[in-house]
Amino acid sequence: MKENQNQANLNAEEISRYARHISLPEIGIKGQEKLKNSSVACIGTGGLGSPLLIYLAAAGVGRIGIVDFDVVEYSNLQRQIIHTTNSIGILKTHSAKEHILKINPSCQVDLFNQKLSSSNALEILKPYDVICDCSDNFPARYLINDACIILKKPNIYGSIARFEGQASVFN
Q: Which of 28, 89, 104, 128 gives 39 a disulfide partner, CB atoms 3.0 to 4.6 angstroms apart?
């Protein structure tokens, strides 16, 4: 993840929150500051996007963009762990943001309550350092890959089908 021009210093609360990360020599204060200054776009808040968003917020990623156009349904709850029973009928992006801010209120969360398309993908994804493809269909996957190539952004791809999964990084 790229480091932004203005290095953000960690305050006392953040040092306490991220103490376990900071104690790791591979991360330390500088690594945690890089996380705070980084941005990730996540396309999809379903079975893959839900846990990813939770862990991005918990790890201290400073800015998270969420792209999804669906609403939460009962059938989502057993695998889409960012949503709760109280989220039924509301936009998945709003449900996800609410949960993220409960985990990490200092995280900036950008919502895109729309389907990613060839007319909006570049504009939506351009501000982010890393793109996470948690979509569930091939046209979206191809679109995300094309946008990442054009924008020269790393594309972290995940896919699940029944009991099998795939993950890869395209950079």
A: 128
